[in-house]
Amino acid sequence: MEFYDWLLYAWIGSGLLVFPVLLLVSAPYGRHLRTGWGPTLPSNWGWVIQESPSFFIMAGYGAQWLRRRTWKGVQDVRSAEWMTLLLAGCWLVHYANRAFVFPLRMRGGSKPTTWVVVSTAILFCVYNTYLNAYALFVREEVVRSGRGVDASLVMGVAMWAVGWAVNYHSDDITRQLRRARDRSAKAGTHYAIPYGGMFRYISAPNYFGEWVEWCGFALAARTRTAWSFALWTFCNLYPRARTNHQWYLATFPEYAKLHRNAFFPDPS
Ligand code: NDP
């Protein structure tokens, strides 16, 4: 077993360990911010600081890889190499939104976050992106698989795009909610029940969309590392979706009548 494999299995193990902890203790930011977790900072800055390493590490490994190639023209590039670039492109689109667009659009209308959350998120982003970038650009796992464009790539990228759209649209609904309310009430951080989109069925469609995104990415990449990220996303976001769902039920008496699930939509 190579050192990389040890790093990967340690990563998968820590995701599985974090899951039960997060079911019991919610991360102290946003609506679950509470005292006793140390100093805070504005949440939009928190998002930029904690998520931008994921963008820059992947972009850096990708740029180095491109420089090493001696392509003579488009015809010389094998489809597995295009697939590698496509996967990195999906990654960069996601993190350009999360690290720069999402915090810019919040415009301060959000509760602070804590340095504890920001530092653990930095660790998460650096480790996770390093593993994925290394698999794509140093171990060249997709290139070496010798795959051509196949069904799992097409289905995976389509699933990634649907997940991304659900995530983006759901974040947009909560953002509009906050802004509309603030404009009329001239107040800080109000909460209201979100309606529309996947909120019809679940309390945390942004989290569900994000999980679908990384499952699609893993299906398209077919690397263990990409699956480890999908697993981690679930371990991280499912517990918070449950806590948010319970919070909605406790905060808004009428919420129970909406018959929403926490994370998984009910197909019936
Ligand atoms: P939330 O939905 O809790 O909050 C997003 C924004 O909307 C915050 O500004 C929040 O304000 C506001 N908001 C949320 N609900 C309401 C409401 N009912 N009324 C008014 N405003 C509301 O999401 P997170 O902050 O936890 O996550 C943001 C994004 O980051 C999501 O898309 C998520 O998928 C992603 N993420 C990914 C993780 C991963 O492991 N891959 C981990 C964590 C997040 P306030 O902050 O004041 O509560």
Automatic annotation (TrEMBL):
Q: Does Transmembrane appear among the keywords?
A: yes
Q: What is its main location?
A: endoplasmic reticulum
**Could you name the domain of life of the organism this protein comes from?**
Eukaryota
As for membrane topology, the entry says: Multi-pass membrane protein
Keywords, A to Z? Differentiation, Endoplasmic reticulum, Lipid metabolism, Membrane, Microsome, NADP, Oxidoreductase, Transmembrane, Transmembrane helix
Q: Name one GO molecular function term.
A: 3-oxo-5-alpha-steroid 4-dehydrogenase activity
Indicate yes or no for the key word Methyltransferase: no
**Transmembrane segments annotated in the record for this chain:** 6-25, 82-101, 113-131, 151-169
Under InterPro entries, the record lists: 3-oxo-5_a-steroid_4-DH_C, SRD5A/TECR
The processes (GO biological process) annotated in the record are: cell differentiation; steroid biosynthetic process
Tell me the compartments it is located in: Endoplasmic reticulum membrane; Microsome membrane
Domain 3-oxo-5-alpha-steroid 4-dehydrogenase C-terminal, residue spans: 116-264
Q: Which GO terms describe its cellular component?
A: endoplasmic reticulum membrane
Q: What PANTHER family does the database record attribute to this sequence?
A: 3-OXO-5-ALPHA-STEROID 4-DEHYDROGENASE, 3-OXO-5-ALPHA-STEROID 4-DEHYDROGENASE 1
Provide the family line.
Belongs to the steroid 5-alpha reductase family.
What is this protein identified as? Answer: 3-oxo-5-alpha-steroid 4-dehydrogenase C-terminal domain-containing protein
**Source species of the chain:** Cyanidium caldarium (Red alga)
Taxonomic path: Eukaryota, Rhodophyta, Bangiophyceae, Cyanidiales, Cyanidiaceae
